[in-house]
UniProtKB/TrEMBL annotation:
<keyword id="KW-0418">Kinase</keyword>
<dbReference type="GO" id="GO:0016301">
    <property type="term" value="F:kinase activity"/>
</dbReference>
<dbReference type="Pfam" id="PF01636">
    <property type="entry name" value="APH"/>
</dbReference>
<protein>
    <submittedName>
        <fullName>Aminoglycoside phosphotransferase (APT) family kinase protein</fullName>
    </submittedName>
</protein>
<feature type="domain" description="Aminoglycoside phosphotransferase">
    <location>
        <begin position="28"/>
        <end position="250"/>
    </location>
</feature>
<dbReference type="InterPro" id="IPR051678">
    <property type="entry name" value="AGP_Transferase"/>
</dbReference>
<dbReference type="InterPro" id="IPR002575">
    <property type="entry name" value="Aminoglycoside_PTrfase"/>
</dbReference>
<dbReference type="InterPro" id="IPR011009">
    <property type="entry name" value="Kinase-like_dom_sf"/>
</dbReference>
<keyword id="KW-0808">Transferase</keyword>
Length: 324
């Protein structure tokens, strides 16, 4: 469900403080974004975006610091123009960034351009994964914690994956006893092949074609780091595969992203298997979380049913949806 607007008078007052009273601008809500309120600000020939924290208790400091670190490293992400730890009128943490030019990849992206856009996005993804996170799972966003270095909610990868609890929850979604046991075995394998120390890689968290921007067939950057977490590097690859139905042309992107990624960071020999395990992990976590939150109403969502069918298909085929 799309959240209502913030106090627009309060937001405009903050923007006047940021840009100055002599700078005319317009501000309007973007059509995308449901859990996160995002506003587009046009000032002359320049465009900026305002991200509002999802909750009063959540700080955008980790996102702002990550943006700054990635931008300084040459990764094509929005630059931070202003970070407001907590605006008392809006009762939220606020971040203002520059625009990434162009539009998201879509089914209309020229086929000849998909390869180079995918490779470029893969190179940036590899650089993103070079940022460490102390712990695993969602990046912690408490206001009383420093935003950098990034820290996550679980000490170990095993605590984050939690094979028995996550697999067991799937019985209520219609998975058979044999399927639940198979999922638990695969999740345990993911633990055994995943990060062994208490440090993971930062994941974009929602890496798919809708967040890869291009302009006239040329890659321009990645947006939306609202779901960052600490995990194994394969998480973002699995997300790209699982979101293929929702956001084309993800199914054509995987191989090109891998090629670009390998130019920056070597992929291990068991890369394909680890993407498969990450796909099972991501699907199982999503389903158990959504079902715990929404109960039987979860089945009303087409994407819930899609992810459930993806997990069934992965159990039967032994590969992620876009692996061919």
């Amino acid at each position: 469900m799309r959240k209502p607007d913030v106090d627009l008078r309060g937001l405009n007052a903050l923007l006047v403080e940021i840009f100055g009273p002599q700078q005319e601008f317009t501000c309007r809500r973007t059509p995308t974004g449901s859990s996160t309120q995002v506003y587009r600000v046009d000032r002359g020939t320049e465009t900026f975006y305002v991200r509002v924290a999802e909750e009063e208790q959540a700080s955008l400091a980790p996102e702002a610091e990550l943006h700054r670190a990635l931008h300084a490293a040459g990764v094509r992400v929005p630059a931070v123009v202003h970070y407001e730890p907590f605006d008392h009128t809006l009762a939220r943490s606020i971040m203002v960034t520059t625009e990434v030019h162009g539009a998201p990849m879509s089914a209309s992206t020229p086929t000849r351009a998909v390869a180079e856009i995918g490779r470029s996005a893969g190179r940036d993804l590899a650089r993103i994964h070079g940022v460490p996170v102390h712990g695993f799972g969602w990046v912690r966003r408490e206001h009383d914690r420093a935003g950098w270095p990034l820290r996550a909610e679980h000490r170990t990868y095993a605590e984050y994956v939690d094979p028995s609890a996550v697999a067991g929850a799937l019985a209520g979604i219609g998975f058979s006893t044999d399927q639940v046991r198979a999922i638990e075995r695969l999740l345990q394998e993911a633990v055994e092949t995943g990060p062994t120390a208490g440090v993971g890689s930062v994941a974009h968290g929602d890496f798919d074609a809708s967040h890869i921007f291009e302009n006239d067939g040329s890659y321009t950057g990645l947006i939306d780091f609202g779901e960052i977490r600490g995990t194994d590097y394969t998480f973002d690859f699995a997300t790209l595969c699982l979101n293929a139905e929702e956001v084309p042309p993800a199914g054509k992107l995987l191989g090109f992203v891998e090629e670009g990624y390998a130019e920056v960071r070597a992929l291990p020999d068991d890369h394909t298997r680890r993407i498969y395990l990450a796909g099972v992990l991501s699907a199982a976590h999503r389903l158990s979380t959504w079902y715990e939150r929404d109960g039987e109403r979860a089945f009303d969502g087409w994407f819930f049913r899609w992810i459930r069918d993806c997990l069934v298909g992965m159990l039967e085929s032994g590969r992620v949806p876009t692996a061919g």
